[in-house]
Amino acid sequence: MPRSLVGRLIAILALLLAAALASGFVMFSLFEQSTAARIGQASAVASQSCGAIARAYRFYTADWRGDAPDLSAPALRRDLAAVVVTALNDKRDVEGGLWQADAGSLAYAFPSYQGSGPKTDVPQAELPRIRAAAAAALTDDRPQLARLDAASQTLLIASCPLSGPIPSLTAWTMTRVHSFAGETYDHLMAGLAILSAAVIGASGLASLLVLTWRRHVGRIEAAFAAAGGDDLPRLPPTGERELDRIVLAMNDAGRRLAASHDRTRELSRQVAEAERLAAIGRVTAGVAHEIRNPIAAMRLKAESALRGGDERKVQALALVIAQVDRLDGLVRRLLTAAERDPPQPVATPLAPFLDACADAHAEVARQRGLSLAATAPGESAWFDPAQMRRALDNLVANALEAAGAGTVSLSAARLGDRLVFSVSDDGGGPPEAIRATLFEPFVTGRPEGAGLGLSIVREIARAHAGNADVVRDGGITTFRIEIPWRMS
């Protein structure tokens, strides 16, 4: 079964056409049967008419005495013509006469002729057939019926031998059955015309329906294509009852969707506002905590210096300078975390890039008795080397702080269509309690840490359309930066 309206209408039209063809075939078959029946009936009438002429001739010659008459005598010809007229007077569409083998036509009559006057001449076009029919009747000495089928009619000639004073005499009758004329033919033409009109009308209505629906559906598609945003367009009525039900349902769904979008936008605004306030709260709390401790330390040292001598004042000033440096570093990290510069990716060879990063931390690793190893494929990838170096420096510095007595590994690898930077160490890893929020600002597992390094790592990864995470497996902690791989 076709799944589209057009396909179904075409199927219906095909069935209608098949039914019309079948009906036309049946009607034509009935017409042919009717024509055959009319030919059979006309054959019987022609034979009966020939017999009627024979009976009238026998009646005419019943009291005949003497020798054979003069066939050229006008009186004889008038009498014989009267015999034929008498026999055929009630025979519709039948003409006939008397035929003598040597003299030819002795009498002819067509009483039912529809012309302007009586027809008295034998049809010249049919003379050879009449002569042949008469000869066949004389030869076989019994009635004959000749049939000639033409394109538009069937010609029937009946002949029967006559005995009497005129030798070699035959009676003949002739009638025509028109195949494409008459009441039956008119009925056939009327039926075929009605069938044709029905098929044409149905095809026209179906075509109009298809075009109308296509136009309406095209307008609906155009309205959806022209609609901007996520809301459904307002569809105008089409005038088609069934289609308008769908249009009304779509418009109602569009109204509900628009209302839902409004509610969603309002909720999103409220959530964003709440998140912004929460972020401000977290940053404020973190900054306050980071600033309060150095300020408290400086206050205590300053108060102690005011009560002590010069040596204590020098120690207090040294501590104040150290705490100021600590605050300055905190401010720099805050500014770095707040940066939103878009990355400037360039084709960067991975192996030299990681080697340079490892070399920058090699001295710290030696001082702590650690081994720092970098491994990378001999390929180039697209990323911002400055931003990625900043992220990896944070991860390597954290790994050197957390590592035990083993090796800190720095690596890059391609996994499908992704590039993964990894920094691994054998330290204890971040506490389980803060692992879910480890990349948030001011979240740290070290008392002396500011909790900004990993948030910077995550922001750089996200700026590269990637992400950062941490996994703990078999005593090894691995921080990963995963970004799309783009070969140079």
TrEMBL record:
Its localization reads: Cell membrane
Keyword list (alphabetical) reads: Cell membrane, Kinase, Membrane, Phosphoprotein, Transferase, Transmembrane, Transmembrane helix, Two-component regulatory system, Virulence
An example of a GO molecular function for this protein is: phosphorelay sensor kinase activity
The answer to keyword Phosphoprotein applying to this record is yes
Entries under SMART domains matching the protein: HATPase_c, HisKA
Superkingdom, natural source: Bacteria
- Major location category of this protein: membrane
What InterPro entries does the record point to? 2C_sensor_his_kinase (IPR050980), HATPase_C_sf (IPR036890), HATPase_dom (IPR003594), His_kinase_dom (IPR005467), HisK_dim/P_dom (IPR003661), HisK_dim/P_sf (IPR036097), Sig_transdc_His_kin-like_C (IPR004358)
Q: What name appears for this protein in its UniProt entry?
A: histidine kinase
Please give the organism: Lichenibacterium ramalinae
Check the record and name the Pfam families matching this protein.
Answer: HATPase_c, HisKA
Report the membrane topology from the UniProt record: Multi-pass membrane protein
- Reaction(s) catalysed (UniProt annotation): ATP + protein L-histidine = ADP + protein N-phospho-L-histidine
Please report the stretch or stretches of sequence annotated as the Histidine kinase domain.
286-487
Listed GO CC annotations = plasma membrane
Q: What is its EC number?
A: 2.7.13.3
